């Protein structure tokens, strides 16, 4: 539990920094390697419809950060907190537009 809280705290700070200078290419590469196959299997196409569906499970930046961290852990992606922050910032910039 403490590990999760620490990771979310670090991720929050990292996402705030990453949001200013999102490396879209790096984020997309991480997403394509570790996320797209699962999302495509569950939602069809390239899996991006999970981000645009009307019944979002994510309603703010904190939930987005937690979701990215959770998916990273579930898939054993081996991402660093900075990778999670980059992907969360890219998803926010590309799909969610949270402030």
Itemize the secondary structure elements and their pairings.
Blueprint: H1 2-20, H2 24-34, H3 36-43, H4 49-52, H5 61-74, H6 81-96
Helix pairs in contact: 1-5, 1-6, 2-6, 5-6
Task: Using the alpha-carbon principal axes, give the shape.
Answer: globular
Question: Count of helices?
Answer: 6
Task: Give the rounded overall mean pLDDT.
Answer: 86
Strand content: under 5%
Sequence stretches where pLDDT stays below 50 over 5 or more residues? none
- How far from one another are the termini? 27 Å
> Helix fraction?
over 70%
How many domains would you count in the coordinates?
1
Tell me the structural class. mainly alpha
Number of strands: 0
Major beta-sheet overview = none
Keywords:
99 residues; 6 helices
Condensed summary:
By secondary structure, this protein is mainly α.
Description of the molecule:
The chain has helices at residues 2-20, 24-34, 36-43, 49-52, 61-74, 81-96. With 99 residues, the protein is mainly alpha-helical. The longest helix has 19 residues, at 2-20.
